[in-house]
Amino acid sequence: MIALHSSGVFLSNGVPCETAPVSRLEGRKRTLAWSVLQSHNISGDDKQLHIRFDAMVSHDITYVGIIQQARASGMREFPLPYALTNCHNSLCAVGGTINEDDHAFGLSAAKKYGGIYVPANQSVIHSYAREQLAGCGRMILGSDSHTRYGALGTMGVGEGGPELCKQLLKNTWDLDYPEVVLVYLTGAPHMGVGPHDVALALVKATFESGFVRNRILEFAGPGIASLPMDYRNGIDVMTTETACLSSIWETDETVAQFYEAHGHGANYQTLRPGENAYYDRMVSIDLSAVEPMIALPFHPSNAYPIREFLENAEDLLAAVEKDVKQRWPKANPHLVDKIHDGGVWADQGIVAGCAGGLFDNITAAADILRHGSVGNEGFSLSIYPTSVPVSLALTRAGVAAELLESGAVLKPSFCGPCFGAGDVPANNALSLRHTTRNFPNREGSKPGEGQFSGVCLMDARSIAATARNGGRITSATQTDCDIHPLPYHFDATPYEKRVYNGVGHPRPETELVMGPNITDWPEIPPLAENLLVELAAVLHDEVTTTDELIPSGETSSYRSNPLRLAEFTLSRREPQYVPRAKAVAAMEAERLAGTAPAALTALLARVGDGNELAKTTRFGSAIYANKPGDGSAREQAASCQRVLGGCANLCHDFATKRYRSNCINWGILPLTLEGDFTGENGDCVFIPGVRAAITAGEETLSASLLRKDGGKEALTLHLQGLTAEDREILLDGCLMNYYKKKERLRWKKSK
């Protein structure tokens, strides 16, 4: 089905091969990734890229913070098309007026700075970008990790808010030229096999080994021709879960028809890898061998063919229960109880968001459910079309009526079910979702408080087959229903009547609407001469996700208020982190006020003159995690630590580039180490001369681990791969300080 090839390949005459009549260097320049990246690179160096994007997108969890950062750094208008969508904080009963206050802020910002404002329930972020902003050869930056439009010939990148702030200030996204992986598709999928099945198989094959991590996936091969546009988009958006950097696909008449149907025919170009293009690795996928899949908690890579899952359900569900008990002793999972009456039974089906709510997925589900019934027992089925134009097309085609007749419920365009703000399952329920993720807590339960629900990912087709069987988990290929794709007719009228588009026409006289929860960022100090950090959370999980660092769901309402949001940091993984970090911050406040606490000077006395060191040593908190930052691009996973006085992350590796970038942009030292780390909560790490070391570009730092029991050990830390700008940001304390400094220097020169 899927094979991984770790050695490089050329693509000659459309076929992968080991040799070609060109060098690897020349072959690299013939990939689509090369042409798109270099056309946006302004550095003049094809190895050190400084990228400017064609457009940006943010949703209502992230855009307030981004605009506030950019305002504080001197932004006067949006220098590129920037769409502010309202698809995450759409439940405006949560937190009182908070969410709708953010929407009012967004509209006023779009007017003031010249942006696009997409009202709540009009479209999810990535649907709007596909429909209105994509173009072959373009690049789009989004403050959401699933910013992926490669199937449309558009390279999408998901990053934390500070990287979008840089673009708003006419600066660049900087990176070393990445490796490119060929994803070579052959064959055609069987009836009942959907895009989520292909995507989950790809994630399973690549994620754990890091085979494509921080690399670009380039899709090519004869199998592409068999895939409709929604099918391609459905696979592409899930490439985020492989931990790749971005994606790009070759384009054809199917893509041309998509652009034509959406009124943007001029945005189409035929994109093909050049003859003898060279790729650093290859993933080959035989689409005809892909089976319907199910991803068990707690990651999309924990995937199995549904057939295999049903054959081994007791063992697999028992393993999930064991994992739950190890992570959250208060939880009492009973997933094995779902096995009865000759099958495995689910309680809920959800088809939603940028992966699930596509026209073809929903029409396929309707075909399977036609003349059937979801039933009047415990199983429920909710379907969220990805945009109002999709809902309109479903209504006009009669599909909406058929789904309602079956007992399914149609809901507005909304991303909530993907991250725990909608359709939260009951305790011990088993939910099947065609959404992007099934990370711990992401569906809204709180296992640390004894709540638990199991979320599995499945394609809409198999979810519909399961619904037709009253909740008995069923592969779509085991149904006798035919799927008949319908033509999609896009109508832009809802956007024309509801979306505010002020691109190129800022109205600087507009006053920003600032609700009571919208606050400015607190002052963040620059890096001191020395650094002492106390470990406020030590996490030995294989991977720590951004959903664990800052939970999604109800916390999203507070993302315009840095101090209130910070109270939720690690709340579902290490609840004592916040009080520990606050205790450290209180001692640092005393030190800054001129009276260093005796406990602090005593700590520093273990490495020198405590009183003298207290004058030049910043005291902050830190997190140790084996591999932090998988998942969402949200900057708050880092900024919340910083607001609480966090100064460093210690780890063996960062799960994603975007989380490491968030740490740097918020002035958190991204420190790595080798070998086992035996530090515990309450131990401290002292790094002498850290400011001078970063200034000099040193990548290895000598430190001391000061154990709370009085022990002391030498520790070697690494600070690798920092650019000159990265170092300056860390020295200044955060990206906002860096830009404020630059603005002051410009002002002085102008005088």
Task: Summarize the structure in words.
Helix 22 crosses helix 23 and helix 27 crosses helix 28. It is globular and about 80 Å long. It has 751 residues and is an alpha/beta fold. The mean pLDDT is 92. The protein has four domains: 143 residues, Aconitase, Domain 2, CATH 3.40.1060.10; 129 residues, 2-Layer Sandwich (Aconitase, domain 3), CATH 3.30.499.10; 189 residues, 2-Layer Sandwich (Aconitase, domain 3); 217 residues, Aconitase, domain 4 (Alpha-Beta Barrel). The strands form eight sheets. Strands 17-16-24-23-20-21-22 form a seven-stranded mixed beta sheet, sandwiched between helices. A seven-stranded mixed beta sheet has the order 31-30-28-26-32-33-34.
